[in-house]
Amino acid sequence: MEPTPNSVGYAHDGAAQAAETTEALSALRRFARTRPAAERCELCSSEIGGDHPHLLDGKTRQLTCACDGCAVLFCGQEGAKFLRVPRRTLKLEGFRFTDIEWEGLMLPINLAFFVRQPNGATSVLYPSPAGVMESLIEMPTWDELFAGYSPLLVLQPEVEVLLVNRIGEARAYYIAPIDAAYRLVGVIRTKWHGLSGGPEMWTQIAGFFASLERRATPVGEAAHA
After folding, report:
1. Cβ-count burial of 180 within 10 angstroms (0-12 exposed, 13-18 middle, 19+ buried)?
2. Which of 174, 184, 187 is nearest to 214 (CA)?
3. pLDDT average, residue stretch 166-179
4. Is a pLDDT exceeding 60 seen at residue 102?
5. What is the b/e burial string over 193-212, where b = at least 16 CB atoms within 10 angstroms of the residue's CB?
6. φ, ψ (nearest 5 deg) of residue 149
7. How far apart are CA 177 and CA 158, in angstroms?
8. d(C-alpha 122, C-alpha 140), whole Å
9. Which residues are bridge partners to 218 per DSSP?
10. Which pLDDT does position 146 carry in this prediction?
């Protein structure tokens, strides 16, 4: 049976509509894949922006994303479960470790962050492909170790770190939020390839410190002996 002109037109229109529908669905899928998921407060589930507060659980040492309201509510009283992570980043232009001091730490990588504990002790942590590792070298108390450098004597326990970058020719020292140190650990953990880490990882680390440098406020004093 010969198709009538109307049936030919209907078939053509139907095919065109099907093609348009397929194209629209494909575009919608591409949009769904590329549109970032909204971040939410882990305490009240409200939507939060990218630049939101982080809270540190005093027992588990885990970081929690929070809205401004929850950050105030859950950190504003004595004995609260969470500690609010500050946002300041300072570059310590008058501070240094000598090569002998650094070698005495016997760290396998020239990156580390020093954490002041509530009892005054000093912890030395460093990133690795397996996550955060802690040096087993016994350290002096925080106040003994940094007695000659006042900005470090007011560093907040647990939520701020002395972040050290001595990769290659770099000799950079920062007071940074603990979440920044964890981001650096995440770069190494997720990007490490082969025996030496691979070029992509080292490029990511360079980018991390370039971003940190742009945000940092310089502070300077007499060099640490």
Report:
1. buried
2. 174
3. 96
4. yes
5. eeeebeeebbebbeebbeeb
6. -135, 100
7. 9
8. 7
9. 91
10. 94
Return the closest-CA partner of residue 75 out of 67, 62, 84.
84
Tracing tokens 């501070």 back to the chain, one arrives at 95
User: What torsion do the CA atoms of 151, 154, 156, 160 make, to the nearest 10 degrees?
Assistant: 10
pLDDT at 76 over 70: no
The answer to whether residues 217 and 89 touch, using CB atoms and an 8 Å cutoff, is: yes
Residue 81's alpha-carbon distances to 52, 57, 76, in angstroms, are 19, 6, 10
Token pair for 192: 């490490």
CA distance 199 to 205: 10
pLDDT at position 81, please?
86
Count CB neighbours of 164 within 10 A: 25
CB 60 within 8 A of CB 84: no
The answer to whether the CB of 132 falls within 8 A of the CB of 206 is no
Between residues 135 and 18, the one the model is more confident about: 135
